[in-house]
Amino acid sequence: MSSVKITINNQTVHGNTRELLLDQLEQAGFHPEYQCRSGLCGVCRCHLLKGEVAQLDALALTGKNEILTCRTIPKSDVELVFSYPISCSEEA
Ligand code: FES
């Protein structure tokens, strides 16, 4: 497992290249929106500004540079932007 930095709306936390982004964001104290957690609804969508990810199978549509955090694993340091305010309740 490699360590990566995950930057979300200008806040940076430590992550890894093994777990889904949605799970890692929640473990870091963020509360991103989600519903299905299986790539169907698209609610967990955000923009990928920088970095590489592995996008697992999903049915929800995504636009250019959009990812589904419930079906995505980071492969490098990543920078994400959500279309709504998201804060971290814990120091990372
Ligand atoms: S939570 Fe439904 S697609 Fe991610």
From TrEMBL:
The record's section on Pfam families has: Fer2
Q: Return the InterPro entries for the record.
A: 2Fe-2S_ferredoxin-like_sf, 2Fe-2S_ferredoxin-type, 2Fe2S_fd_BS, Beta-grasp_dom_sf
Q: Which Gene3D superfamilies match?
A: 3.10.20.30
Q: Which domain of life is it from?
A: Bacteria
GO MF: 2 iron, 2 sulfur cluster binding
- The UniProt record lists the 2Fe-2S ferredoxin-type domain at 2-86
| CDD domains tied to this protein | fer2 (cd00207)
* Name of the featured protein: Ferredoxin
